[in-house]
Write a structure and sequence with these properties.
alpha+beta; Pathogenesis-related Protein p14a; 6 helices; 6 strands
């Protein structure tokens, strides 16, 4: 009886430990750039950027799909502003949703900040108490993980309001 339990425990440990592992790649991901735009990155914003770029630099299993290592994201203050307005909206209304003020979606909110995008994505979260916890929560959710690992995205901004988090990704036109 002990041998099947030990075999299962070993299988579970190995399965868990390879979900986000480093892969060999012929290209080395670029070094993170901390700002794009006018707003300097705060220590908390830098921590979020570092955590995301760490995942992007090693590759990650998102549900059934493996994402190879990809380039680092840059911080963008316009994406941060769109994220802040959406987090503020969710806090003021108690409406935890990708739909924002006036029925807006993330693309409209990004455009309203003066960012001309070719592609975009958004992650939202509620009730996480640290940068590490929210990133881990997003990595454990297939769709959110896919946004974090999407090689089409080149920039991001993140903002919180109360217990609400919004992470916005995009690539400029």
């Amino acid at each position: 009886m002990r041998q099947p339990i030990l075999a299962f425990a070993l299988f579970a440990f190995v399965s868990f430990s390879v979900s986000c592992t480093k892969t060999d790649s012929s290209t080395t991901p670029s070094t993170p750039t901390t700002t794009t735009g006018t707003t300097p990155v705060t220590p908390n914003q830098q921590k979020l950027l570092d955590l995301v770029n760490e995942k992007r630099s090693t590759g990650c299993q998102c549900g059934a799909k493996f994402f190879a290592a990809t380039t680092a994201l840059q911080w963008n203050s316009k994406l941060e502003a769109a994220a802040q307005k959406h987090s503020d909206y969710m806090k003021s209304t108690g409406n935890f949703s990708h739909t924002g003020s006036g029925g807006s979606n993330a693309g409209q909110r990004i455009t309203d900040e003066g960012y001309t995008w070719s592609t975009y994505g958004e992650n939202i979260a509620e009730s996480y108490t640290s940068e590490e916890a929210v990133i881990q929560g997003w990595i454990e959710s297939t769709g959110h993980c896919e946004n974090i690992m999407n090689p089409a995205f080149t920039e991001m901004g993140v903002a919180t309001s109360g217990s609400y988090w919004t992470q916005v990704f995009a690539a400029p036109q």
